[in-house]
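Before the break, one more example. Copy the sequence into your notebook; we will annotate it together after we see the structure.
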Amino acid sequence: MSISAQPVHHHRNTTKVDHKQFKSRHATKSALKDAAKGKVEREERGKRRTPHQQVMSKLVRRNQAKQSRIHHKIKKEQETDIFKGAEGAPKHVAVVPLSKEVDVRRAINEMNAGVDIEPSMQEEGIVRTRIERYGRNVLFMPATMNMLNALDVCKLADFVLFVLAAAEDLHTEAENLLRVIEGQGVTNALFVVQNAKETVPDNKLSKRLAELKIQTGHYFPDPDKLVVLDNKNDCALLMRKICTQSTKGIRWRDARSWMLIENTQWSVPKASTETANVILSGLTRGKSLNPDRLVHVPGWGEYQVAKITQIPLKPLKRKADEMTMDQDRKGTLPSTEQDDLTELAPEQAMTNTIASSIDHTEQKGVLLDDHHYFSDDNSHIPQQPKKLPPGTSKYQSAWYLDDVSDSEDEAMDEDMPIDDANEDAASEQPEDGAVAREDAMTDIPATEYPDTEMHVDQDEAEEARQLAEFRASRKKEAEEDLEFPDEIELHPDVLARERLAKYRGLKSLRTSEWNTEADAPYEPADYKRLLQVPDYKKSYSAVMKESLAGGIPAGSRVEIELQNVSTSLQSTTPSSLFSLLKHEHKQAVINLNVSLSSSLTAPIKSKEEIIVQIGHRRLAINPIFSAGGVTPNDVHKFDRFLHPGRTAVATFVGPLTWGSVPCLVFRKSEQGDLEMIGTATTLPPSSSRIVTKRVILTGNPFKIHKKLVTIRYMFFNREDVEWFKALPLWTKRGRQGFIKEALGTHGYFKATFDGAGKTFEES
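Here is what the structure looks like once it is written out:
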């Protein structure tokens, strides 16, 4: 009988509900941060990050181009607005002759004749011309072939017109003049030719003009067509270009307000004083003129402004009522924030805490990277592991005060164990010190020489004779500096540790740290009072933004009253005035990147007087030269000479000049004239720039035995050898070495080098 199973009905569980996971489309910052767990996603390669790298649509590009056109149009209109109208500012044209056969006054009259203007009868001074055809005023400033006169005239010019003689090539004086004007900075340069019909046949004129264009192209590439002044049509086109063409300007000049002085008026000085106020009138150019800033008058100096009076431009026709001109005068007085004439920071009544420098009488040797490597106090030096006989226990090793005798068989060293107690100390030794490597040269025993060899001091007379022969082949000082830079030779009677007491040892001139506190006793008295500019770019940007705010706008006719001007200057007449930017009167450590001309025959020695023109200033300085470049420790090697064709940094204390300004370097010739010897550019002022004088002591290898060399003529007594024992040695072929031990009393010593060879050059 089979039993049939009854089917069982199961109900589905209705209480079990699987909830869907919440999927948030906008997670919070904290949730994303927790999910990242500190990981940073790598940016997509080739992703455009800056706004200029983004792909813009066609509409955006069109809008950007339109805004750029509008911006340049407004900028050009602002530059040309001061020249518009009958009362507009005149365009300054400097006329510079490049030959003694050139007549500058005649050249000006020939150009005026091209626009139907009557010739001027003036024999001296500037020539003013109103050209109604183009609605412009032109001011011709004739110059001479004198270098300083040409520089002063071209400094104020919008166009520089060089006048050539048709039958003459450029001679040396003309080439020097072009080179100097180019180095100062020039705006639009034009070349004209005089006396072409009188000296050159018509069939050879085109060829002659091509030759002159090639000669002038060396100084001003791609010059315009040479204009023949004998041709009236060419003169008319030249005047049209001067009146309508935009001026390029000179960046360092247009960054500040400047003015061509038209009139000078002295006030009546008091009987008890030697100074008076002076009123200089003219038309301002460049940036706006701020009465709070100092002004520089070339040839006079720098002064404070007492008052600036803005006067209306003088009309061509006299008004019926002249009283209205006096009513329109506007006087501007300086504010309480006016710059003063103080060059140095005020002295503060506080005690200068100068770090205590190491007394040289207490030193046991020269400092290497501001550390003592050989001193009686060896508590800070890890203990050297001892070489002990086989089987020596830790207790027995305490009875050995030093390594076992080196006179024993050297094969025994291989079996000697290292003291276990000193293993930790050995592992803590520096990696770059005298014991940096296992095969360091100081590990070579002093008995590497044969035991039977003994050093014997030579006779003093023989020693002096050999020394005289060794030094007989030296050249002159400048030639030695070029061939043997920074190398010196000590006199046998001079102690090296006293002669070089101020010097310190450095492993690397570029990377070794320099302790500036030790130099405090040798600083000049006013060194701390010089202007400090920690962040040059930020300070320069702030000064330039301040120069654009307020003041009297450019193109205004003004009368500037200067105060406390010496009455001894009444016999002179200034030609220009430049407004100084903020802090430009203060003294700072100035650095110039000087490039000396390769045509010079003699080098320039450090601290030799030279004349530099930095923008609108001319200074007589005695700079020190040093190597250029950027180093991690800001230490730069002092150069005793700046040789022709080389570049160095000239450092001196002088007034600050903001921006990168071209400089000219001059030197007085034997005849008393100035000759240009090089060019320079200004670098950011820095009083933290360390100029260090490097000294190299040279020695002569006396005996050579594999890696061990006996050297002489570097020192002349045993104490000096011990004093400078920490300094490394090097050869001109790149071998490195160290002083091992002194020999005798005449300055001989043993040295080990990292390479073996039969011949060693000077150490």
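Residues 58-81 form the longest helix (24 residues). Residues 349-361, 398-452 have pLDDT under 50 and may be disordered. Try to locate both features in your own notes.
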